[in-house]
Design brief:
The complex is a heterodimer of chains A (359) and B (307). Chain A is α/β, with parallel strands linked by helices. Chain A contains eleven helices and 15 strands. Chain A has a seven-stranded mixed β-sheet, with helices on both faces. In chain A, strands 2-1-3-4-5-11 form a six-stranded parallel β-sheet, with helices on both faces. Classes of the chains: A alpha/beta (359), B mainly alpha (307).
C-alpha cells in the first residue's frame, strides 16, 4: 500500500507544528541551545546575495554544532507578507535575521511584539532594544578591484552595470573610480542602470552595450553572472559580484568581491547563547572578513596583484582609506580636501559621483 | 563590428525570446483561449533545455526537450480549462506561479553550472560581410527558427484551411461547433503549440542568450510577450515587428545610457512596451480602427458543447 496524504494528516501535522511553535520558552541569561531563523528575499539558487547569506547560515551550523538549530524562509517578497513570515519565525526562534532592506519596517514592528526575541536586520538603519542592524563595506572591495582595472584596462573605459542609484551602489562606483584614477588618471566609468537587482538577460545586454561602446573592463552591482559570461565571450575582463563566479568566466573574472556573513552570524548567535547580546550597528568590511577578495586569476600580472594586495592590506591595517581626499565631484570641484576623508555617515547618504563617472 | 551593427545584432537577440513566446500565445488567443501562464511555460522550457543539453551534450536534444516541457505545462492548463472548464485567467496565473516553483525545484542542482553557448551559424564568406554578415548570418539556429515560425504561423492563419477553422473557433465557438468542428480538440492543439513555442523561448534564454540556469531567469519576459500579442492586435507579422521594436527599445535605452544621453529617464523607456500596449488597446477600442482590429470574440470564454 502506498502512503497517502489525507487532509486529516495535513491538519494533524500543521497542529503539532503550531504546538511546537507556541511551546513556552524558559527565560534565562545563558542558554544551552539557540534557535536562529533567517528570512531571505530571493531564492537560494540566485548564486548571489541570498546564496551567500545561506552559506553564512551553514557556516553558523558548522561552527556551533548542536548548540544551534537554524531554519529559513526563502523568496519572501518585500511587502505585507514579509511581516507574517517574520512573525512566524519569531514564535519559534531566539534570534531572527532578516536579510533585505525592505524588511526593515516589518522587522521593527514584529520586534515590538516579541521583546524576548532578538532581531538582526541587514542593510537597514532602524535599531531598537532587541533590533540590531548589520551591513558590509562592499566599497572596500571595490577599491581593490578598481586598482586592478586601472592597471589592466587598455581602453581606459570601464563599463559599470548598476541596479538602483542608492547610496550603497553609488559609493561602490565612486570607490572603484577613485582607486582606478590613482593608477591611471585618465580612465572613466560609464554606468548603465538596469533598474533591477536581478535580470540576467538585461544585465547581459547592458554588458554587450558597454563593450560595444569601448569598455574592456566590466564591473557590476547586480546579482547574476550573466555580465561576466558576456565578458568571457567577448574576450574582455570583469569582476564577480557577491560570490566567486569563476566557473562562468574562467578567463574573464580577474577576481570577485565575496560577501562573507558567516563570522557575523556565528558571533551574534554565540552572544545570544552567552546572554551578552545587545543591540548594535555593524558595518564591517575587509578587516573583519565580512568582505573578501576571491583568488586572483592567473592571468593577472604579479605587479598588479601586488598593487591590489597593497590596497587590500592597507584598508585592513587602516593606512588606506577608499575615500581619502582630495576628491573631486563630476564638475571637477574639490569636495573633500587633501588630508581629510569621508566619514561613514557621509558615505551612507552618498548621492553624488566623483570626477570621471558618467552616470 | 561598427557600433550600429553591434546594436542591431543585440536587438535581434533581445527580440527572439519575446517572439517565440508571443507567436505561441497569439495562436492560443486566436483559438479563443487566454493562457496567462507564458512565464511559467518559458521557465519550464529554460530549465529543461539547460538540464538536457548539459546531461546529453546535445543542444538539439535540449531544444526539443524544452519544447516538450513547455507543451507539457500547456497540457496541464488545457486539461484544467478545456476539459474541466476552470477559469482561464486564474488557471493561467496559477500556471505561472507553478512554473516558477517547479523550475526552481528541477533546476536546483544546476545553479552555478556553466554551459557552452549554442554555436552560431558561420557561413564562410557570408558571415564576414560587413553589416549584413553578422546581422543576417551570425546567429544561432533559434533566432532563425523564431522568424520562420512566425512566418509559418502568419501563412497558416491567413491561408490554410486549418488556420481558418482555428480562427472561426476563436471568433464564434458555437457556430464552429454547429458546423461540426471539434472546438475543444482544436483548442487543445492551439494551447499545446503555445506551450511548445514558449518552451523554445525559454530554451533560447538558457542556451543562447545567457547560457546558464538561475531561478526566475525569464524576469518577466512572458508578461511582455502577452502585452506584445495585444500590441500586435493579434496579427503574426505585427508580432514580428513588435518583438523587434520592444527588443530595440530595451537595447537603445542601454546604449543611450552608456553614451551619456539622458534625454529620457531609463525608467520611462522601461515602461514603453507597456505604455504602447495601453495605447493600442485604447486605439482599437475607440479609434477609427474600432471593429477592424479587435480581440477574438470568444477570447477567454469557456466552451461546453451541450448539444
Amino acid at each position: 500500500m502506498t502512503p497517502r496524504l489525507t487532509r486529516r494528516h495535513m491538519l494533524g501535522t500543521a497542529a503539532s507544528g503550531a504546538a511546537l511553535l507556541t511551546a513556552p520558552r524558559l527565560g534565562r541569561a545563558q542558554m544551552d541551545k539557540v534557535r536562529a531563523g533567517f528570512v531571505y528575499v530571493g531564492p537560494i539558487g540566485d548564486h548571489g546575495w541570498t546564496y551567500r547569506h545561506d552559506v553564512g547560515r551553514l557556516d553558523l551550523e558548522a561552527a556551533l554544532g548542536d548548540k544551534v538549530e537554524t531554519s529559513f524562509v526563502e523568496n519572501v517578497a518585500e511587502g505585507p507578507d514579509a511581516e507574517r513570515v517574520i512573525r512566524q519565525l519569531a514564535t519559534g526562534n531566539d534570534i531572527v535575521f532578516t536579510t533585505s532592506f525592505g524588511f526593515m519596517n516589518p522587522t521593527v514592528r514584529v520586534a515590538r511584539q516579541f521583546p524576548n526575541v532578538k532581531f538582526e536586520h541587514c542593510t537597514g538603519y532602524q535599531t531598537a532594544e532587541n533590533v540590531a542592524v548589520y551591513n558590509a563595506k562592499f566599497h572596500e572591495g571595490r577599491a581593490v578591484i578598481g586598482t586592478i582595472a586601472g592597471h589592466m584596462s587598455k581602453s581606459g573605459i570601464v563599463g559599470y552595470i548598476g541596479s538602483f542609484p542608492i547610496p550603497e551602489v553609488v559609493m561602490g562606483i565612486n570607490a572603484f573610480q577613485l582607486a582606478m584614477r590613482k593608477v591611471r588618471p585618465d580612465c572613466e566609468i560609464r554606468v548603465v542602470w538596469v533598474n533591477s537587482w536581478y535580470d540576467p538577460g538585461k544585465e547581459a545586454d547592458a554588458a554587450r552595450t558597454l563593450i560595444d561602446q569601448g569598455a574592456d573592463m566590466i564591473s557590476q552591482h547586480t546579482d547574476s553572472p550573466a555580465p561576466l559570461q558576456v565578458a568571457e565571450e567577448r574576450g574582455v575582463h570583469g569582476f564577480g559580484q557577491a560570490s566567486d563566479m569563476a566557473a562562468f568566466a574562467p578567463n574573464a573574472q580577474l577576481t570577485a568581491i565575496i560577501d562573507n556573513w558567516g563570522p557575523h552570524y556565528i558571533q551574534r548567535t554565540q552572544a545570544v547563547l552567552d546572554g551578552t547580546w545587545a543591540t548594535q550597528n555593524f558595518w564591517h568590511g575587509l578587516k573583519d572578513g565580512e568582505v573578501e577578495i576571491a583568488p586572483y586569476n592567473p592571468n593577472v600580472p604579479s605587479n598588479v596583484i601586488e598593487a591590489a594586495e597593497a590596497v587590500r592590506l592597507g584598508i585592513i591595517d587602516g593606512t588606506v582609506h577608499p575615500f581619502a581626499g582630495p576628491i573631486k565631484n563630476q564638475a571637477g570641484e574639490v569636495v573633500v580636501a587633501e588630508g581629510e576623508s569621508l566619514s561613514d555617515e557621509d558615505l551612507l547618504k552618498m548621492d553624488w559621483y566623483v570626477e570621471g563617472v558618467q552616470a | 563590428m561598427d557600433p550600429v551593427t553591434a546594436l542591431l545584432v543585440t536587438v535581434v537577440t533581445a527580440a527572439t525570446p519575446l517572439l517565440f513566446a508571443a507567436v505561441g500565445e497569439l495562436v492560443v488567443e486566436r483559438s479563443g483561449v487566454l493562457n496567462l501562464g507564458v512565464e511559467g511555460m518559458m521557465l519550464a522550457g529554460a530549465v529543461t533545455g539547460f538540464a538536457v543539453t548539459l546531461t546529453t551534450g546535445s543542444g538539439t536534444i535540449g531544444i526539443i526537450a524544452a519544447a516538450f516541457a513547455g507543451a507539457a505545462m500547456a497540457l496541464v492548463f488545457g486539461f484544467l480549462t478545456l476539459t474541466l472548464l476552470a477559469n482561464q485567467v486564474a488557471t493561467g496565473l496559477a500556471l505561472t506561479i507553478f512554473g516558477v516553483g517547479l523550475s526552481a525545484l528541477v533546476g536546483s542542482g544546476f545553479v552555478g553550472t556553466p554551459l557552452p553557448r549554442l554555436p552560431r551559424l558561420d557561413l564562410p564568406g557570408l558571415t564576414d560581410l560587413p553589416v549584413v554578415g553578422p546581422l543576417l548570418f551570425g546567429h544561432d539556429v533559434l533566432v532563425y527558427m523564431a522568424v520562420l515560425l512566425t512566418l509559418a504561423v502568419a501563412w497558416f492563419l491567413a491561408r490554410s484551411r486549418a488556420g481558418m477553422i482555428l480562427r472561426a473557433v476563436g471568433e464564434n465557438h458555437e457556430a464552429a461547433h454547429g458546423l461540426g468542428y471539434p472546438v475543444i480538440r482544436i483548442r487543445y492543439f492551439a494551447v499545446l503549440f503555445g506551450g511548445l513555442s514558449a518552451g523554445l523561448g525559454g530554451a533560447f534564454l538558457s542556451l543562447a542568450y545567457t547560457p546558464m540556469w538561475i531561478e526566475q531567469m525569464t524576469a518577466g519576459r512572458g508578461w511582455i510577450a502577452l502585452a506584445l500579442v495585444v500590441f500586435a492586435a493579434w496579427r503574426p507579422l505585427r508580432v514580428l515587428v513588435g518583438a523587434y521594436l520592444f527588443g530595440g527599445v530595451t537595447i537603445l535605452q542601454l546604449h543611450a545610457q552608456g553614451m551619456g544621453l539622458f534625454a529620457v529617464p531609463s525608467q520611462v523607456l522601461s515602461m514603453l512596451p507597456y505604455l504602447a500596449t495601453i495605447v493600442v488597446l485604447v486605439v482599437i477600442s475607440v479609434g477609427p480602427w474600432k471593429g477592424r482590429l479587435q480581440a477574438p470574440a470568444c477570447l477567454g470564454r469557456p466552451f461546453h458543447p451541450t448539444h
